Amino acid sequence: MRIHIGGDHAAYDLHQALLTHLREAGHDVVDHGPFSFDALDDYPVFVLRAAEAVAAEAGSLGVVLGGSGNGEQMAANKVRGVRAALAYSTEIASLAREHNDAQVVSIGARFTAVADAIAIVDTFIGTNFSDGERHARRLGMVSAYENTGDLPALPDSDAS
């Protein structure tokens, strides 16, 4: 599987560990940086490139990394068509794929041990979207909003 990865200095060591793990597992990994440790680098430089690559390549997935993972997830979600999820457990990673068809997982290196991050990424990559009707319907609403800016219709209410 093609995996795009990007992060920042706060996650540099985790980034390197995941690159090694994913390549050894046989994945085609595209590293969007950082390519060396720089305590002053900015995560959007690398994360946005990884997320754009995922959006441009159907079937690929992405991993974005930072100190908390929050900013990286927010940045990736700014790329049209990308659904990025902050995952701090394998269960969250699985649900992000099964229910939300997330294509990018974000992990906070300051809060996640390397072994746990590897398990989160492996779970994320190994889980498919359930394609359940309610999940597809909800994703359709989000995609429609992203494309048109129109809010989904409110449900009919029997309340007086």
Q: Can you describe this structure in just a few lines?
A:
By secondary structure, this protein is an alpha/beta fold.
Named CATH topology = Ribose 5-phosphate Isomerase B, Chain: A
Unreliable spans: none
N-C termini distance: 53 Å
Q: CATH superfamily, please?
A: Sugar-phosphate isomerase, RpiB/LacA/LacB
- Can you write the helix and strand succession as a string? EHEHEHEHEHH
Instruction: Specify Rg, calculated over alpha carbons.
Output: 16 Å
Instruction: Please give the number of β-strands.
Output: 5
Q: What helical percentage do the residues reach?
A: 40-55%
Key phrases:
160 residues; alpha/beta; Ribose 5-phosphate Isomerase B, Chain: A; five-stranded parallel beta sheet; 6 helices; 5 strands; 46% helix
Report on this model:
- With 160 residues, the protein is an alpha/beta fold.
- It has one domain (2-148): 3-Layer(aba) Sandwich (Ribose 5-phosphate Isomerase B, Chain: A), CATH 3.40.1400.
- 46% of the residues lie in helices and 14% in strands.
- Helix 1 (12-24) packs across helix 5 (114-126) and helix 4 packs parallel to helix 5.
- The longest helix is centred in the C-terminal third of the chain and has 16 residues, at 133-148.
Describe the secondary-structure layout.
Layout: E1 2-6, H1 12-24, E2 28-31, H2 43-56, E3 61-66, H3 70-77, E4 84-86, H4 90-98, E5 104-108, H5 114-126, H6 133-148
Parallel strand pairs: 1-2, 1-3, 3-5, 4-5
